[in-house]
Amino acid sequence: MNTHPPLKQASNRRQFLGRTAAVAAAGLVSTQLGAATAADVATAAAAPTQKKLELYKAVKWGMIADAPTVLDHFKICKELGYDGMELISPADFSAEEVRKASDATGLPVHGLVDMKHWDVRLSSPDAKVREEGVAILRQAILDCHAFGGFSVLLVPGRVNGADETHDHVWKRSIEGIRQVLPLASKLGVQVLIENVWNGFCETPEQLRDYLDEIANPWVASYFDIGNVVKFSPSQNWIRTLGARIVKLDVKEWSTEKGFDAKIGEGDVNWPAVRQALREIGFSGWCTAEVAGGDREWLADVAKRMDQTLLVQD
User: CA 20 to 30 Å from 28, out of 13, 178, 183, 270?
Assistant: First the structure.
């Protein structure tokens, strides 16, 4: 669940506390020390500071090669410095295996991905397909809870011709998502909408309004930093979505290499992204979504995440 306060409210509170601290400090110095003026202290108190980003990194389950068992997946990520795991649903492993692996390594499961959302879409023109999509999403919520996680990543649909327009995706997906919210709230599992190249909500204002129409604390944004660069700068999306963002997908994109660009070697303005995340008060999980590979490859992904997103300015 997103515990961040609304951006405007948090900003106003910080401003009030900042002014209060400056006034108190000015009075203390001017009356007790006499070495600096109240204006000097107020100026120092108002100086900008860089808030440390509290981020926790993971990779997508399918990125982990050479790991025949669930425990092997967890062990590799633990040894390479990842902070937790994101799983999948449906899965060919049991909740018992996951819980044991989590206990053995100390790595928590932060969530999972609904792996059927592209094929069995909530936006399908076929009502039976939409019903199946809702059932799959409901099972993903149950699986997530059983694994010990607290979010399900969902692609809400795809713009796909006259029978599956932007308006259709908007209305049909909201109708389907609302059907699972009683279960989501009961189990404490959020449904997080990922922004992808599906023809839907290609501006931050559209995605903001889509989430606001659902208007439920159990539905929020799983913001993919690289997916939006084609449309507009990632930092603009972050500022517009604000506290609606609960988790981050991390990838790169460039006009020359597309998604083949390695993290840090594309068009994402990482310093601007970090600054925007500070401005909205974000903290939480960031999960790499790039090509998978062996231990050496995953170590490089972790290093690149450290150098671009987790680095402290």
Answer: 13
Which tokens hold the place of 91?
Answer: 């899965």
Per-residue pLDDT reduced to its tens digit, 233-269: 999 999 999 999 999 999 999 999 999 999 999 999 9
Amino acid (1-letter code) at residue 150: F
Burial of 233 (0-12, 13-18, 19+ CB in 10 A): middle
Indicate the pTM of the whole model.
Answer: 0.84
Measuring CA to CA, which residue among 171, 176, 179, 237 is closest to residue 208?
Answer: 237
Structural tokens at position 67? 């790991």
Average predicted confidence (pLDDT) for the chain: 88
More confident residue, 38 or 212: 212
The answer to whether 101 and 73 are in contact (CB under 8 A) is yes
Torsion of CA 57, 60, 66, 69, to 10 degrees: 100
CB 44 within 8 A of CB 70: no
DSSP string, 220-263: EEEEETTTTTTTS-HHHHHHHHGGGEEEEEE---BTTTBTTSPT
Q: Is the sign of the CA dihedral 57, 138, 1, 171 positive or negative?
A: positive
Is residue 3 scored above 70 in pLDDT? no
Distances (CA, A) of 197 to 144, 154, 160, 168, 231: 25, 13, 12, 16, 10
Answer whether residue 11 shows pLDDT above 70.
Answer: no
The answer to whether 66 touches 114, Cβ cutoff 8 Å, is no
- Sequence-distant (6+) residues with CB within 8 A of 131 are none
Q: What backbone torsions phi and psi does residue 59 show, to the nearest 5 degrees?
A: -130, 160
Closest CA to 113 of 308, 309, 312, 287: 287
